[in-house]
Write a structure and sequence with these properties.
Helix content: 40-55%
Radius of gyration: 18 Å
Distance between the termini: 47 Å
CATH superfamily of the largest domain: Response regulator
Number of strands: 5
Largest sheet: 5 strands, parallel
Strand order of the largest sheet: 2-1-3-4-5
Number of domains: 2
Low-confidence stretches: 1-22, 234-239
């Protein structure tokens, strides 16, 4: 197995041993982002008990978490998908375009069959349900920290049409993906430009390139593409 490979069942423990053997004394830095204090406490206890990790900080919302990431440059961010201030997917996009982006593991109580593909497309490196056992969560954290991807097996199998769309999405840069999500979420060019510290003209250029790469023609096509590939909820565009 190589870094970037998706985890499938029994591969987890084998790869964990390999990683430990390669760098037995290296502490992996982690930042936790979850709006439930009890969950953060439990996660911190679990992580520090592992002996391989150093928790640099905790945050109850995306804004504080993002500031911690920019300040401390952690190796891994462990975050919940639904946060009180912004959607976890938006946070993943923001993290993934940083100059030194950390590895990202999403730990959520949401349906993994629905959301694992979304966080994968957003730039996360793993997804594990809060309903899983402690050992499985530990294994996922070790794997993501070691440079591997860790997603539910069911999310790895897609039909020909969805695979073709994923291939198109993989051609987008991280910045293009960020602009795409902003556009299909209803943000104006100015709003996206302000959030990325770019000009509106630059955002317009990104929009043209995105349409070309995805073989689309209009913003409406882009929105339908995003809904079909579960990058956004269809309810967002229902009247």
């Amino acid at each position: 197995m190589k870094p970037g490979d998706a985890i499938r069942g029994g591969d987890i423990n084998e790869s964990k041993e390999t990683m430990t053997a390669e760098s037995p004394n290296l502490l992996i830095s982690v930042i936790l982002i979850d709006d439930h204090p009890v969950m953060r406490y439990a996660l911190r206890h679990m992580i520090e008990e592992q002996g391989r990790f150093n928790v640099l900080g905790e945050a109850e919302d995306a804004s504080r978490g993002f500031e911690l990431i920019r300040t401390h440059f952690p190796d891994v961010v462990l975050l919940d998908l639904f946060l009180p201030d912004i959607n976890g997917l938006d946070l993943i996009y923001k993290i993934s375009v940083l100059p030194r982006p950390p590895r990202i593991l999403v730990l959520s109580g949401q349906d993994e069959r629905l959301y694992s593909n979304r966080v994968m497309s957003a730039g996360a490196h793993g997804y594990v349900s809060k309903s899983k056992g402690i050992q499985e969560i530990k294994n996922a954290l070790v794997m993501v920290a070691g440079g591997y991807s860790c997603f539910p097996i069911a999310s790895l199998y897609v039909g020909p049409e969805q695979k073709a769309d994923r291939d198109l999405l993989s051609c987008l840069t991280k910045r293009e993906m960020t602009v795409l999500i902003g556009l299909v979420r209803g943000q104006s060019n100015k709003e996206i430009a302000d959030s990325l510290f770019l000009s509106q003209k630059t955002i317009s250029s990104y929009k043209v390139r995105i349409l070309e790469k995805l073989h689309l023609h209009t913003l409406a096509d882009m929105i339908n593409f995003a809904i079909k590939n579960k990058l956004i909820e269809s309810e967002r565009w229902q009247r």
